Amino acid sequence: MPGDALSQDPALLRGRIDTTRAHPARVYDVFLGGKDNYPVDRAAAAAALAANPRGYLDVRHNRDFMRRAVTRLAGEQGVR
Questions:
Q1: Rounded to 5 degrees, what angle do the CA atoms 4, 9, 38 make?
Q2: Helix (H, G, I), strand (E, B) or coil at 19
Q3: Which of 10, 24, 26, 69 could lock onto 41 through a cystine, CB 3.0 to 4.6 A?
Q4: Who contacts 21 (Cβ-Cβ below 8 Å, separation ≥6)?
């Protein structure tokens, strides 16, 4: 499909990602223990944890809620 990320040249996509500034989605990934983040994102996560040491729990609770909601909608309510 033209214009989607899979059809574009990987070098062009890498050029569009700013790895010098933290991005909220990548910081979220750090809190979830993911692998799709950069040192600047890990530093931002560390700074956030310094200000609020239990802040990572908000992210974990959000993911747990989303998992429960999708499971219920898909399994019990028949949403596909």
A1: 90
A2: coil
A3: 26
A4: 40
Asked if 28 contacts 56 with a C-beta cutoff of 8 angstroms, the reply is: no
Going by the DSSP 8-state scheme, the letter that residue 35 receives in this structure is S
Question: Rounded to the nearest 10 degrees, what angle do helices 24-31 and 56-71 cross at?
Answer: 90
| 28: Cβ contacts below 8 Å, ≥ 6 apart | 59
CA dihedral sign, ordered 17, 18, 19, 24: negative
Locate 7 and state its tokens: 């059809």
- What is the C-alpha R_g of the chain? 17
In the chain, where are the structural domains located? 5-76
Please give the model's pTM, rounded to 2 decimal places: 0.72
Q: How many CB atoms lie within 10 A of CB 2?
A: 5
